[in-house]
Amino acid sequence: MIRKPVRLTLALLAVLALVALPAATKAQGSKGTLKIATQSPLSGGQAALGEGIKLGAQLAIEKFKGGLEKAGFKVDLVPFDDQAKPDVGVANAKNIIADKNILAVIGHLNSGVAIPSSEVYKEVNLAMISPANTNPTVTDRGYMNVNRVCGRDDVQGAVGSEFAHSTLKAKSAYIVHDKTTYGQGVAEFFKADAEKKGIKILGFEGTEEKSNFDPILTPVKAKGPGLIYFGGIYDQAAPFFKQASEKGIKARFLGPDGMDSSDLVKIAGKAVVGMYYTTAAGPVTVFPKAKEFSETFKKKFGKNPEPYAAEAYDATAIALKAIEAVAKSGKMPSREDVAVAIRKVKHGGITGEIEFDSKGDRKKALYFVMQVANADPQKWGDNKLVKQLTIAPPAVKK
Amino acid sequence: MDLQLLVDIFPQVVLDGIILGFMYALIALGYTMVYGVLEFINFAHSEIFIIGAFVGVELLLGLQSLGALDAVPWPLVLLLALLVGMAGSGLLAVTVERVAYRPLRNAPRLIPLISAIGVSFFLQDMIRLFESLWHNAFNLVYPTIDALNVRLELTRTIDVPVKSLVVILAALGMLGVLWVLVNRTKVGTAIRAVAEDQAAASLMGINVNRIISLTFLIGGAMGGAAGVLFGVQYGLINPYSGFIPGLKAFTAAVLGGIGNIPGAMLGGIVLGLLEAFAASYLSLLTGGAFGAEYKDIFAFSVLILILIFRPRGLLGEVVRGRA
What we know:
Largest sheet of chain B: 2 strands, antiparallel
Distance between the termini of chain B: 60 Å
CATH topology of chain B: ABC transporter involved in vitamin B12 uptake, BtuC
Oligomer: heterodimer
Largest interface: A-B, 35 and 42 residues
Helix content of chain B: over 70%
Number of helices of chain B: 12
CATH architecture of the largest domain in chain A: 3-Layer(aba) Sandwich
Low-confidence stretches of chain B: none
Number of strands of chain B: 4
Mean pLDDT of chain A: 88
Shape of chain A: globular
Order of helices and strands of chain B: HHHHEHEEHHHHEHHH
Strand content of chain A: 15-25%
Mean pLDDT of chain B: 88
Largest sheet of chain A: 7 strands, mixed
Strand content of chain B: under 5%
Strand order of the largest sheet of chain B: 1-4
Strand order of the largest sheet of chain A: 7-6-8-9-10-13-14
CATH superfamily of the largest domain in chain A: Response regulator
CATH class of chain B: Mainly Alpha
Order of helices and strands of chain A: HEHHEHEHEHEHEHEHEHEHEHHHEEEE
Number of domains of chain A: 2
Shape of chain B: globular
Structural class of chain A: alpha/beta
Radius of gyration of chain A: 23 Å
CATH architecture of chain B: Orthogonal Bundle
Number of helices of chain A: 14
Radius of gyration of chain B: 20 Å
CATH topology of the largest domain in chain A: Rossmann fold
């Protein structure tokens, strides 16, 4: 039990704090606070990548907020954890649109989460710039507020099958996917293009299994494909490939950008050394301008930037640039103005020149084929760049 | 459709199913023993099971960082991991019973059930919190013991890794010990007496609370051993890994006849086989129309059919007599 005078003091202090805090923030940003939200999985099996997106955005805000602060605004980052789940992403999105000061969203990691969440942003024309969502539907809906700085799965799937056909000389392939919008989507694009190129598809299998892949692998082994393609994310792909290799399957392994995390080798070890993956997010080492980013990141957070951290950095920089352009008038920018301004930004980012087309795709997106070089997760950055392509997004199919 | 292929993989599928089945059987024992004694379904058992896996992996990682993993012969390492995992899960199960179930023993039956679900959520997030603070990791990887990954070629199309044999042997061994313990020892007689009639058992001088604690200890320890074997077999665990296998094991226990120890084993193996067959054969037999993703639907449809015709499970439910 707290004695009365103490309680009174505490209550007074609380009241004082309530009065004093807003006053203190006022002094910093006299014209109000502008917020940028990130949405990515910060907990769960894909947290490594999601955390990278958040930290990339944080670095960009620290670096580029100067202009807006001079204009009298305070700039804040509000990170949300979408847990890689569509329902959580949508619930967060509703909270985000309720906060009038949030002018742009950087996210998500998973296309299956981004698509329903962006329907919510669309209601208020809140701009979303995605660092990582490669599913074509994300931009093919033609929303004015949805953009991405990465490539697309219809191209990525074809890049993969082209590589399998002409470089790996694969005659047959077995495809497994994770049944998500992203994983199944890219697997289907791979399949369609591989069939065109004459690669025989021995199986196309979806699974939500996370630990025991034995029963799926038994027919794979019996059919003896030259290549196994896994459309999905590393936390599921790693045990899959590990068990495949333990089962004595000799096929080559290939996957999309969902493989691109040091956790892949952390889980699967030497089973995935030498495997290939396509990605729409190049390793920071291929971008000369990203060196400084990579060093700052490491100094500040004590770890190497995960894939998509650099993309999140660029996406955030674009959002800030657009907000700054709108805020020139000195008024609090509106969400719609910001969304319109984002389409006009030309940004020389650390991942190259970025400019959006009329549906929000990057005008010249980059695609890479990478090979896992080392079983040590610390050396994920040493993965070998096998091929680099710049491809414009395909025209909208009517 | 390639008939030869179907025939070729058949033995391998049976083997996959049996391994999975023994895993389910070991977990199912925890459900079934507790149900046999208390008529109460311990929904926290899936977390008790996965904590065994976490304790085991911590031990192996510890040994690895000391460089002792390769120095000590692997059967010893595995035995140690099993014992530590069993101790961890067993003690946890006893604690959970003491804290969350015993105070509710005379409450309406739904109350301890809700308490059990609460404990299950609590434990999941406890592990998550602990592992993220300790390793900053969500997924934990079992260190590879090379000797366990050696594959024995039985024929051209079938081979079996040493670790799967270990799983089968360990499961058989533990089931044997458990059977002897329950049916051939004084303690076992006491357990059966408590299951039959708590009041009468206590009049005969049996300390009912101690026997119930012991039941949880044994069931938990079996779960812990299953956890370690699960980790060794599949290599990757996370705080939520226990949930689905736990649910399936519970189903296996019901399928075999809940409260019935041989029933739990039979139920586990039937379920494991159904799952393995569905996952391997569905897409081959339907030309890709139904794939491995339907394995649970298929397995559970068969279960519903079995339970329609044998509502008390394959070997019959064992319920204590009511005086």
